[in-house]
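I'll show one example:
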Amino acid sequence: MGSDRTDVRQSILDTAKPIILGKGFSAVGLNELLSAAAVPKGSFYHYFKSKELFGEALLDRYFSDYLQQIDTLLSRPGNTAAERLMSYWQKWLQTQASDCQDGKCLAVKLGGEVSDLSEPMRMSLHRGTDQIIGRLANCIREGITDGSLPASLDAHHTAQTLYQIWLGATLLTKFRHDRSALDGAMLATLHCLQLPVSAASPA
């Protein structure tokens, strides 16, 4: 029974993610989500006590999946830490410049919308983005250790700065409907990490 409950809960979250990526959180009603997930409306509150806590669960799940992807990307064998780090930014550029909704950043989509409306969702965004920055900082430290990144870098400050640049560039990409801000973020990243332009090429 517990497994079935978990499966239905996960099905609701999986179904909701692309819908909310497309429309935002507030614009999507429970009826639409539950109809898409083929779940009776009355049973929603068996899985989530409120729409707000559903939103928190959605973000928590998004960051959990995203962090697993980062861990895989940043631990790829046979590459220097700098190469692994650049592969992360290259993937970011490719997914956020694409028209495909699947790879879009839920933090960018919901950050401005829900942070003033829901403290649980704001805290989920805070936790998730801090964990991402922590992963990036660890990779920068590895790059300093293996000599692929300059020893002068402050790992945490650099990771935080770069993440903020890319988050802002992704938002600008939504405004402009072109990838110029992401291309600028890539150049800023190379400059910050003191890497040659050739390091931006996919490995």
In short: The CA atoms of residues 97 and 179 lie 6 Å apart. The chain has a mean pLDDT of 90. The radius of gyration is 19 Å. Residues 119-146 form the longest helix (28 residues).
